[in-house]
């Protein structure tokens, strides 16, 4: 199946990055969110990130303008009805994702591929609540989407080969690299990355090091581009906690127990960069 028009549900940091890379690769993109403010903010972010690519001579000004012209926004899920591929990039909550699919499905063409950018939730379970488990897949982009090379492709138990191969081709068209992961909690990247971040929070909690010394140790001692606490702030502490809970519940092993300090920060509303406060203060 040829994919030409792509619908994205959720205009947050993942949704706007996904819209950016699809539009640059020549796809028509419709972005949906529940607030006009979120849509306007997404277009402003995409414009700023495309401008940055122009100023660094990664793309021409003409390419930026063509990409922006390919993006439309809407508050109505029905407007995704004529798309060939839908990527759900809403909040990392299963009830929210299920509710979106329930409202969206009556409007979709039968052949439309439905995907979720979930970073941890079971694809098989999400798919089972839809009318097309064979055309449902996990399509997991990394943040910041325009920069990160990897896309995880996760097949649910019922996903058919044609859907998988169509998405492999899409990833190739985006100029990115696909890694296939089996459908187990948090797949590959977050199965490995989140316990490391959680361990960094334990290291802070137990007083082994300060925020600065933990991050500097991993940047200068292990050549990570960001320290784990800085990265947690970048991803969002609520997302980190949600993924640790999925690992803990799904694999029933205490080694995935979320650090109480991570829970406390989330309860305080200190979610990282997006709330101006996390392990660092951005105010
Ligand atoms: N859009 C477009 N370009 C962007 C961008 C964006 N949003 N953000 C950064 N860039 C570009 C910059 O323009 C710059 O380009 P050049 O190389 O051409 O100069 C390049 O990326 C590097 O950016 P900066 O110079 O501003 O800053 P940096 O060198 O500190 O890099 C970073 C920033 C790319 C974010 C780097 O710190 C990094 O790789 N951090 C780790 C990110 C990471 O681990 N992401 C995965 C998170 S896990 C995940 O996403 C999965 C999940 O489910 C939670």
Summarize the structure.
47% of the residues lie in helices and 14% in strands. It folds into 2 domains: 5-181, NAD(P)-binding Rossmann-like Domain (Rossmann fold); 191-273, N-(1-d-carboxylethyl)-l-norvaline Dehydrogenase, domain 2 (Orthogonal Bundle), CATH 1.10.1040.10.
What does it look like?
This protein has helices spanning 13-24, 36-55, 61-69, 94-104, 123-128, 161-173, 189-205, 211-222, 228-235, 237-251, 260-268; strands at residues 5-9, 28-32, 71-74, 85-88, 113-116, 136-141, 150-155, 177-181. An eight-stranded mixed beta sheet has the order 3-2-1-4-5-6-7-8. The model has no long low-confidence stretch (mean pLDDT 97). Helix 7 crosses helix 9. 47% of the residues lie in helices and 14% in strands. It is globular, with a radius of gyration of 19 Å. It is an alpha/beta fold and 283 residues long.
Number of domains: 2
Largest sheet at a glance?
Answer: 8 strands, mixed
Estimate percent helicity: 40-55%
C-alpha end-to-end distance: 48 Å
Beta fraction: 5-15%
| CATH superfamily annotation of the largest domain | NAD(P)-binding Rossmann-like Domain
Radius of gyration: 19 Å
